Amino acid sequence: METEAHRTYRIAHPKRVSASWAKWYAKNRTAVCARRRGEHIPIARKRREKRDILRVRRYGIWDEDYRRLLVEQKGVCAICGRPERSKTQKRLSVDHNHKTKRVRGLLCNRCNRSLGYAQDDIRILKAMILYLELHNVSS
Could you say which of 32, 68, 105, 132 would form a disulfide bridge with 78 (CB–CB 3.0 to 4.6 Å)? Predict the structure, then answer.
């Protein structure tokens, strides 16, 4: 949507605007042409590719490694043994040691957050178990 200020600038500086558009088009020509031919990359594919790139940068594991871990764990969380059940997150999270950055396994959102809230501290986790046992909480 063009504002009045944009319109005024465009009228006052047609050569600058034309040069700016030409520069943008030169940079994005391949994508523009592909879109015109109906060959653009769907948004869902872009999201998957971005997620895969982030996983490699953060944890150093490629999609094949993730899939291998998923098969090894039979598609369920390494802690609770259930599949991911979050409405917003459909895939298991990559769990890693924050000090060594080494991948430990795949966890559901709940278990991953629980470890995070406990700061991966075994003493805190043992204290939580003791607390639950003291108050007769059973699963």
Answer: 105
pLDDT (mean) for 35-54: 79
With beta carbons less than 8 A apart as the criterion, state whether 118 and 128 touch. yes
Where do the CATH 3.40.1800 domains begin and end in the chain? 43-108
Tell me: pLDDT of 139 over 60: no
Report pLDDT for 36: 78
Question: What does the CA dihedral 72, 76, 79, 85 come to, rounded to 10 degrees?
Answer: 160
Residues 4-26 pLDDT 10s: 888 899 899 999 999 999 999 89
